[in-house]
Design brief:
single chain, about 50% helix, alpha/beta, about 250 residues, binds 1,4-dihydronicotinamide adenine dinucleotide
Length: about 250
């Protein structure tokens, strides 16, 4: 039996990158996948086709994860259509890096809104439905930067550290209802963004990673798969670093 057979999973900001790879893996493992992103793109259309080739009920919705109103409406729409959601991966995130001296209040607010407020939005909007079913797994995407901090990323590190505090608190509030909540903390993952880093700088980062390689989107997706599946049915409130050991 596949690991997510008969499960319905929702992934935010999944049109590309880690979210997209997670959506593909979840579908390969039997899930009906609902994914969101800010707008419809060639990549979101292509992903929807792939997901529907595994399970025709898979779907895509445009929604700004930072907006409470849009999230609340989306939750109603999804529950009307599917009746329940078994797993949520809060993946949507952005960076607006700068040294604190140059960081604008707008870039602070934007990063907190999109990375941290979105986690609040999806957890709050879907928790009443998960409570009715007494079942659910929430996976929040933090970062090693949220665990260790990183110069030039005060806004992002604060949001990602906030996600860890939120995750542990949520796990305490809803454990008795059989709703689990964990965070993943990816390290240096190979994506379009990290490919743009000059070779020399990239090699310097790699030299600091105990496993001497960057991570892949699949490395991260597999940990989300474990947490979404019943294999992790007694795991809650944890932060799992997917980082080749860089946070050690
Ligand atoms: P990405 O930039 O490739 O993909 C992020 C997706 O989120 C995009 O499709 C974007 O349109 C969507 N998005 C952005 N704002 C949104 C909003 N307000 N509402 C809905 N969707 C929105 O990013 P990547 O690299 O795949 O990262 C995914 C998650 O993993 C993020 O939370 C990121 O902070 C986290 N992460 C990534 C690492 C990396 O090395 N790539 C390392 C650690 C954490």
């Amino acid at each position: 039996m596949k690991l997510l057979e008969n499960k319905i999973a929702l992934i935010t900001g999944a049109a590309r990158g880690i979210g997209r790879r997670t959506a593909e893996l979840f579908a390969e493992e039997g899930a009906t996948v609902i994914f969101t992103d800010l707008k419809e793109t060639d990549s979101s259309k292509e992903l929807l086709q792939i997901l529907q080739s595994h399970n025709p009920d898979s779907s895509f919705y445009t929604a700004n994860a930072a907006s409470w109103e849009e999230t609340e409406q989306l939750a109603k729409t999804i529950i009307e259509r599917y009746g329940r959601v078994d797993a949520i991966v809060n993946n949507a995130g952005i960076t607006r890096d700068n040294l604190l001296l140059r960081m604008t209040p707008e870039d602070w607010d934007l990063v907190i809104q999109i990375n941290l407020r979105s986690v609040f939005n999806y957890c709050k909007a879907f928790i009443p439905y998960m409570m009715k079913k007494r079942n659910g797994s929430i996976i929040n995407t933090s970062s090693v930067v949220g665990v260790n901090g990183n110069g030039g990323q005060c806004n992002y590190a604060a949001a990602k550290a906030g996600i860890i505090g939120f995750t542990k608190s949520f796990a305490q509030e809803f454990g008795s209802r059989n709703i689990r909540c964990n965070a993943i903390a990816p390290g240096f993952i190979r994506t379009a963004m990290t490919d743009a880093i000059p070779d020399e700088a990239r090699q310097k980062w790699i030299d600091d990673i105990p496993m001497r390689r960057v991570g892949t989107e699949l490395d991260v997706a597999r940990v989300s798969l474990f947490l979404a599946s019943d294999l992790a049915e007694y795991v809650t409130g944890q932060v799992i670093c997917v980082d080749g050991g860089i946070s050690l």
